[in-house]
Design goal:
This protein is mainly β. 12% of the residues lie in helices and 39% in strands. It has a five-stranded antiparallel sheet with strand order 10-12-15-14-29, with no helix packed on it. The chain has a five-stranded mixed sheet with strand order 11-19-16-13-30, with no helix packed on it. A five-stranded mixed sheet has the order 22-21-20-28-23, with no helix packed on it. The termini are far apart. Residues 1-27 have low confidence and may be disordered.
């Protein structure tokens, strides 16, 4: 009997263990109904941060949830930004204004839809000096906003830029047809953009220069943003040999005009028309040409009024009407360096040229210098890339409708 009692006691012990296990199983089931953790929001720059560089990206991140809204506001305006695909991060795309306090407000929700709100502030550094854009081309008054396939984007600043990277990375080029291109610094106040090859005809282009707050040098920041919209017209490329004395104008690949001409007579280098890829820089009904290195009464002096001119360099080269040299046009070179054509051809060429149209001349011992007017295409692509601060070319962003 004692053995039986010991067995019962042992059986009771097993029952207790079973009940305990049963209770444990019930607790595990209830854990499956546990609430999702609250979303956690972090903001960079940190709350109350001061002397923040204006071009520092504001980054809002969420853990255990997704971001539903973000605002970055100040008395001087708000900063726009973009969400990541999974909406766990938001990053500003605008540059802040120097000497400004911003308030960041963000809301994130966890898996149960419970919202978490976070608010923080930061202040940008107060600038010691400022820079601004002095000029941008194309421009509606100077070039028109429909331009030729060779047209560069040209920006000049009122102060020397020592942080070229700080400026260049805020210059955004969009185009309706993607092109590979690059910015090129000619000096500390001048940066230009051109594609690797000529623009495709009909391309819409937008420059977005987010320069308000961009760092340009020690304690120096930009003051204003700029947006420029322009369009590339039909493809028109004129080419001619100074030895054959004939230019052919191709529009969209088809010859539409053949123009006999007379170029620089040579003898001394200044009287040679330059060889190279010129661009049409201006169109003028009347131009007064004066010898650049001789005054009245000196040998070589001249002053001449000419009509229907298209400027192709800064060294005084034009394609223009020259009724006095019609007999030489198509067979010999007799000018001081300009491209002489007949009055009817000159009028037609003026009327049918867009600023930025390429004019390619060959056969001269004098080469067009890259800085002689808009000789941008005189540099090979590797040469052009030597003077970009970002180190390489880039494909333009897609063109947006607004």
């Amino acid at each position: 009997m004692g053995h039986a009692i010991r067995v019962s006691a042992h059986g009771a012990g097993l029952l207790v263990l079973a009940l305990t296990a049963s209770c444990s199983s019930g607790a595990t089931a209830s854990e499956g109904e546990r609430k999702a953790p609250d979303a956690r929001v972090t903001v960079v720059p940190a709350n109350s941060a001061g002397n923040v560089a204006p071009d520092t990206a504001v980054v809002v991140s969420a853990q255990h949830g997704t971001i539903s809204e973000v605002s970055v506001t100040s008395p001087k305006g708000a900063l726009n930004g973009v969400f990541s695909a999974d909406r766990t991060q938001w990053r500003s795309r605008d540059v802040g204004t120097p000497g400004t306090t911003y308030t960041v407000t963000a809301v994130a929700a966890n898996a149960d839809g419970k919202a978490t709100r976070a608010t923080s502030t930061f202040s940008t550094v107060t600038p010691k000096s400022a820079f601004k854009v002095e000029n941008i081309l194309p421009h509606k008054d100077d070039t028109g906003l429909t331009v030729g396939v060779g047209m560069p984007i040209m920006i000049s600043f009122d102060r020397e830029i020592t942080d070229r990277v700080g400026v260049e990375r805020h210059l955004i080029v969009q185009s309706s047809k993607p092109v590979l291109g690059a910015w090129h610094w000619f000096d500390d106040k001048t940066v230009h953009f051109r594609p690797r090859t000529f623009w495709p005809a009909g391309t819409k282009v937008r420059l977005i220069a987010r320069l308000a707050g961009a760092h340009g040098g020690e304690g120096m920041y930009g003051t204003k943003n700029h947006v420029l919209d322009f369009k590339i017209g039909r493809s028109q490329i004129t080419s001619g040999s100074l030895n054959d004395h004939v230019m052919r104008v191709k529009r969209n690949g088809r010859v539409i005009r053949t123009i006999p001409f007379s170029a620089g007579r040579g003898g001394v280098m200044k009287y040679h028309t330059t060889s190279g890829v010129h661009l049409a820089m201006s169109r003028e009904g009347v131009t007064v040409m004066t010898s650049p290195d001789a005054g009245p009464g000196q040998a070589g002096y001249y002053q001449l009024t000419v009509y229907n001119t298209v400027r192709i360099s800064n060294s005084g080269e034009y394609i223009h009407s020259a009724p006095w040299s019609v007999g030489s046009q198509g067979n010999s070179n007799v000018s001081h360096g300009c491209v002489n054509v007949s009055p009817s051809h000159a009028k037609w060429f003026l009327d049918n040229t867009l600023i930025g149209d390429p004019i390619i001349l060959t056969g001269s011992p004098r080469r067009l210098e890259p800085l002689n007017g808009w000789g941008h295409w005189q540099e090979s692509w590797p040469e052009w890339l030597r003077w970009t601060s970002l180190g390489s070319g880039f494909t333009t962003d897609p063109y947006t409708a607004s």
